[in-house]
# Entry
Amino acid sequence: MNFTGKNVVITGGSTGIGLATAKAFINAGANVWITGRSAGNLEKAAAEINSPNLQTVVADTAQLPEIAVLEKAVTQAGNKVDVLFLNAGIATFTPIEQATEADFDAQFNTNVKGHYFTLQKLIPHLVNGASVIFTSSTVATATNVGTSIYSATKGALNKIAQIAANELADRKIRVNIVSPGPVQTPGLESVIPPEAKAYLAAATALQRLGDADEIAKTVLFLASDDASFINGAEFLVDGGYINYATK
# Structure
């Protein structure tokens, strides 16, 4: 797919799925902005990608003033945005009995408020016919123990994306959702013990974890003209996790 000259904004683009997607868009010719909370991680990402078409923005999109920093960086470039990939996210897994207000607020601020207001602030900067893609998760549908807050954030994102697809349709802006299953990323490593990875792999029909590059390819497809009649849809990229029945 060719994205030469297209302008792409990716939140949470310094590691994992965001980084893999930034690489894919750069390789397809796009100009890419990535955000992250850590300047160090953004520097590492920039060195790894090593392209003049990449710009990094230190911004925690859970904070509205920092969304304004991203908006300013985009507007100063003088170009409208063709693709907005709302990907930043965090997770902690605890039973409802043990969850804290801090757990709740952190995940909803990053996973829901951040996406909502980043979209809101960047809508005026989207070209007509742009593509907006949300990173959700199979947990929005699944009912795994210990995931109540994280799952709730992803369920909320799905509804926001579906309504946005209707609200922005008059400008031919398509809004879609990519919902990964268990994917090998630094984020996954940070929230589950090593022995749990084998369990997650066994819970998929393909009997393995996904790769961030596989999610990136789906994002590029949804952002491309090949998906021009896809709007308000959720794409499960989960190796059969949701529908797999263990034998």
Notes: The first helix runs from residue 16 to 27.
